[in-house]
Design a protein that fits this description.
The protein has 544 residues and is of the alpha/beta class. The structure holds 6-O-phosphono-beta-D-fructofuranose. The site of 6-O-phosphono-beta-D-fructofuranose (F6P) has 14 residues, from loops. Belongs to the GPI family.
Length: 544
């Protein structure tokens, strides 16, 4: 295989480096003054989402060069290879086909000579039949009581997507069902999330692609003990446990009847799996029709990403702007700021999606990169963040590009809340972009010694993403927007966005330490002096 030209040797990259030197001090104030139409020009729309990217530190030339970079790094061909089911996850030898999970019935996506779309819909139909029974109260527990409580047990991609979307779509959920999510191996999570539940009315969904993940297996085992502590008959497990996994053998070994297993495939990465059977808890909560709408939104964004011209392509634009800040301005983080309480888990979800995908230090060929890859993703829903960390974004020493996400209509029209909320979206991006100059502060009559403290430099970049209303369809589209943004960035950085070897070392070391913590006799510790001492301190303290 011939090695691609190193990213930093690409003509567009080098032109961007020169361009950065010219543009780095240019103010958004000037860019807006130079072009009265900028606020309407630097916008794009697709799949129900409107993106205003005018408050970014870019000119037409920046955009031209960034688009050239995408071309020179072959983003479109890489995208097409993903959609076509090529094994682009090279370190695991797998196709990357979460997009196949939302292809409508009758579509075709071939993997190893097999059209996977009928299989995808067979699982969706099985999920829908099960969800309908639980929702209707006809799926009965062991004692004959209907299910009232659903507990999803999973971690990472088997938790973050479902919990984010459950919170995101709570408005559409069936309110006589209580849905909770247990992920942490800390026993407190399971204890608190089952608190007050009657085992006879509780259904556990054990969600794990591999069905070997330590945290999930420990929680599932303790959940079974909790159930049997009351119901006292192993056969109760079949009515109170279902599994979502690719590993039928391990599911059956755990004691869950594989007729109550919902499968998926190795070509669905964990962090891209919420629209597979991993979304079963969500489907039960919001119903199959809303789940289908969510998938339709994902698919609409997939089609937009696949077909829209690069300069109007939302994931492409978001990704390129991200590369601009990450690699040229040396920005280390991106803040995700949804102005909707229902999206309270959205930035946590994007943390895994982005950081597990693009937190990589070698290229696809295994060479060390000589440029920055994925940023730190963080954020809180507005307006809470404004009273916590926005100070640093406005006046600190770090450049923090932000995505503001808002909705034109609220699902809970409690006058005047929505206008207050959205006024803050517009005010924040305005303040970040244009700041407040020394002259403006002085003109307010501020005392001389306070002036410097009250100056806002501005020139802080933001994207504003607006949609009409938070519907299942829009949520699907929004998630797919970020999935594909992450894809484009990984394609430009020439890294594998679809493996996660970085989580392995800690897992392996932990499994070695567990028996050392549990040993009766003092174990022969062979770690470094810090780890040895910490283990000894823990063992001594635990016995006390
Ligand atoms: O964090 C590592 C990881 O492998 C994620 O990629 C995945 O989402 C998570 O663990 C859970 O894995 P599983 O679904 O196999 O339990």
């Amino acid at each position: 295989m011939t090695k691609p030209t190193s990213l930093t040797q690409q003509p567009a990259w080098q032109a961007l480096e020169r361009h950065y030197d010219q543009l780095k001090d240019k103010q958004l104030r000037e860019l807006f003054a130079d072009d009265a139409g900028r606020g309407e020009k630097l916008t794009a729309e697709g799949a129900g989402l409107f993106l205003d990217y005018s408050k970014n530190r870019v000119t037409d030339e920046t955009l031209r060069l960034l688009l050239q970079l995408a071309e020179q790094t072959g983003v479109a061909a890489k995208r097409d290879a993903m959609f076509a089911g090529e094994k682009i996850n090279v370190t695991e030898g797998r196709a990357v086909l979460h997009t196949a999970l939302r292809v409508p019935k009758g579509g075709t996506v071939m993997v190893d000579g097999v059209n996977v779309v009928p299989e995808v819909h067979a699982v969706l139909d099985k999920m829908a039949a099960f969800a309908d029974q639980v929702r209707a109260g006809t799926w009965l527990g062991y004692t004959g009581k209907p299910i009232k409580n659903i507990v999803n047990i999973g971690i990472g991609g088997s938790d973050l997507g479902p919990v984010m979307a459950y919170e995101g779509l709570k408005f559409y959920s069936q309110r006589n069902l209580t849905v909770r999510f247990v992920s942490n191996v800390d026993g407190t999570d399971l204890v608190e999330k089952t608190h007050g539940f009657d085992p006879a009315e509780t259904l556990f969904i054990v969600s794990s692609k591999t069905f070997t993940t330590q945290e999930t297996m420990a929680n599932a085992t303790s959940a079974r003990a909790w159930l049997l502590g009351t119901l006292k008959d192993d056969s109760a497990v079949a009515r109170h446990f279902v599994a979502v996994s690719t590993n039928a053998e391990a599911v059956s070994k755990f004691g869950i009847d594989t007729t109550n297993m919902f499968g998926f495939w190795d070509w669905v990465g964990g962090r891209y799996s919420m629209d597979s059977a991993i979304g079963l808890s969500l489907m039960i909560a919001v119903g199959p029709a809303h789940f289908q709408e969510l998938l339709a939104g994902f698919h609409e964004m997939d089609e937009h990403f696949r077909t829209a011209p690069a300069d109007k392509n939302l994931p492409m634009l978001l990704a390129l702007l991200g590369v601009w800040y990450d690699d040229f301005f040396d920005a280390q983080t991106v803040a995700i700021l949804p102005y909707d309480q229902y999206l309270s888990h959205f930035s946590a979800y994007l943390q895994q999606l982005d950081m597990e995908s693009n937190g990589k230090h070698v290229t696809l060929e295994g060479d060390l990169v000589d440029y920055q890859t994925g940023p730190v993703i963080w954020g809180q829903p507005g307006t809470n963040g404004q009273h916590a960390f926005y100070q640093l974004i406005h006046q600190g020493t770090k450049l923090i590009p932000c995505d503001f996400i808002g909705f034109i209509q609220t699902l809970n029209p409690l006058t005047p809340h929505h206008d207050l909320l959205m006024a803050n979206v517009f005010a924040q991006t305005e303040a970040l972009a244009f700041g407040k100059t020394r002259q403006e502060v002085e003109a307010d009559g501020v005392e001389a010694e306070q002036v410097a403290h009250r100056v806002f430099e501005g020139n802080r970049p933001t994207n504003t993403i607006l949609a009409d209303k938070l519907t299942p369809r829009i949520l699907g589209s929004l998630i797919a927007l970020y999935e594909h943004k992450v894809f484009v960035q990984g394609a430009i950085w020439n890294i594998n966005s679809f493996d996660q070897w970085g989580v392995e070392l800690g897992k392996v070391l932990a499994s070695k330490i567990v028996p050392e913590l549990q040993a009766g006799a003092e174990p022969d510790l062979q770690h470094d002096s810090s780890t040895n001492a910490l283990i000894r301190r823990y063992r001594a303290g635990r016995r006390a």
